Amino acid sequence: MALGQNEKTANIEHMLLDFTVRIEKNPTGWRAVVVNLSRLRPDNQRAQQLRIAANTFEGLVRHFEGQIFLLQSSDIAFLCKDADVVAVDNAVNKVRFLFGDDPLAAHMDDVQNDGFSTWYDLSRDYVKFAAYVKQILEEEQRRQKRLASIAGDVQKSTRLPMDPTALAELIGVIGRADLTNVLRRQSICAIAPGEAPKPIYRELYVSIPDLRDAVMPKRDIASDRWLFQYLTQTLDKRVLALLRRNDDSALTHSYALNLNIATLLSPDFQAFDQSLRSGSRGSIVIELEKVDIFNDLGAYLFARDFVRERGYRVCLDGVTALTLPYIDRERLGLDLVKVFWSPDLGDAERVGRSAEVRAAIERVGRSRVIIARCDDADAVRFGHDCGVQLFQGRHIDKLLAASGNTTFKGRLAAPAQVAAAR
User: Fold this and answer.
1) Which of 48, 139, 145, 166 has the smallest set of CB atoms within 10 Å of its CB?
2) Alpha-carbon torsion, ordered 347, 340, 357, 334, to 10 deg
């Protein structure tokens, strides 16, 4: 498998060309699929996302003769011989799901050539595919020459990228620092039409910008996804340690923690779990990120079963209007799904998109959906139109402050009550 983007100039493209040339003598049975991730929005082309996408094809490589190439352009080229087309198509759709919040991956008109992926049957399309490979090699060579020519003139960002040495220093500081100054709380509220918000539970999280400004202002601590994920695991442990101390009586129930799956399987979480009072777990929500879940589905299933057996609720965080239609809440064993509000949902010109989201909310369960990142009243109006009554965001904070109702009822009761009435 030829993964990676740190090789010397166009090395991956050279390897793909060499592999393609070797197939030329006997292309029968060979198929190539190019997943066009270079057409995604730039924020969907982070290194970790691309690695996870490429790893989706690893199982096929083990069962069929083939090779994976993660190109410098961010595209993935997968070549295989006598592979089951359905299995390859399933792998492509798994990658599509990972980037479901991107317009490129939103719809499937023709699964095999819809802009997201391009398929080649090399027994008849070899010349066409070979021309494509030569083209991307030439493009990468030109890009490298341009980069080399301007390298001396490029100004560095005011914040330096994260590296292992800086990460080790940051973790050391975090180990000694009092994180209460950067620990934030935001309420998830039930809002019925025409009524004031009623706080159900709080989400506890570490403010990364505030942590950076306080501890390491000259570094972009989120610049490397893998290092940042390791950092968040360290922050998970510190937050759990703070909660074990139980200094704040308001945090004995009705709150949510956004944790890594690795944290749920660690001794730190077990120690936190043992520190809880009997019956309090049912009012605690564990939020998990989409990418973390699908990076290791087996680990997720194990961790999910463990926390649900202990009584915790499980919430899928970071779902967008584009990825929501692909969520099967019951099969994933989720209690709640948090959907990020997007202003285009309220745009009259996007009626089709709104209808699709409404149908997806019905499948997930209206009482199981939280509309998050609500920055204006349009988010609440759209949620009410879809039958959703749980909301989170800056606009909700303002409504809550204006109402003066900041009393939590002590249990995460509203979702269950609404579900029972559904």
Assistant:
1) 145
2) -170
